[in-house]
Amino acid sequence: MSTATIEPRTSSAPEEIFQALADSTRLRCLALIETHGELCVCELVHALELSQPKISRHLKLLRESGLVSDRRERIWVHYRLADTLPSWARTTLHEVVAAHAHDAPFADDARRLAHMPDRPDGRCSN
Q1: Of the residues 66, 72, 83, 124, which has the fewest C-beta atoms closer than 10 A?
Q2: Full pLDDT tens readout for the chain, 126 residues
Q3: Range of the domain at 25
Q4: Which residues lie closer than 8 Å to 39 by C-beta, 6 or more apart?
Q5: What CATH number did the domain enclosing 22 receive?
Q6: Using CB atoms within 10 A of its CB, is residue 85 exposed (0-12), middle (13-18) or buried (19+)?
């Protein structure tokens, strides 16, 4: 099992972080990642009901902004919050997710992810 990681930028300006958070698709991805720790692209595609290219494009922007980092495992790419994410940004994201976990579309995304088929032990298998 080979893994490779592309390191995110080491710091982000507040403007870049808030610009990334201002997009609904990116915020929804981040909410799920913040809640679950790490998710595969296919899990995000299923949960948000969006195409893989669209999700990947948004994840690329999040990685370039220093919000997430990725880990490649064979053909799958898993995303998590970047270790270099400033604590104020991590706290802000956590508070937003906690305050809106029961609101649409976040609750709907979480429900779809929880009911995703072929997700043994919470990991993507396809």
Answers
A1: 83
A2: 445 454 444 457 899 999 999 999 999 999 999 999 999 999 999 999 999 999 999 999 999 999 999 999 888 899 999 999 999 999 999 999 999 999 999 999 999 999 999 874 545 554
A3: 3-113
A4: 32, 33, 78, 79, 80, 113
A5: 1.10.10.10
A6: buried
Has residue 81 been placed in a domain? Answer: yes
CA 68/CA 29 separation, integer angstroms: 10
Instruction: Specify if 37 maps to a domain.
Output: yes
Question: Tokens standing for 27?
Answer: 């915020």
Question: Which residues on adjacent β-strands are paired with residue 70?
Answer: 6, 79
- Residue 9's pLDDT is 47
- Please choose, from the candidates 12, 7, 8, the residue with its C-alpha nearest in 3D space to the C-alpha of residue 86: 12
Full-model pTM: 0.86
How many domains does one find in the chain?
1
Q: Tell me, what amino acid is at 92?
A: T
In a domain, 120, yes or no: no
Gyration radius (Cα) of the chain, Å: 14
pLDDT at site 11: 55
Residue 125 lies in a domain: no
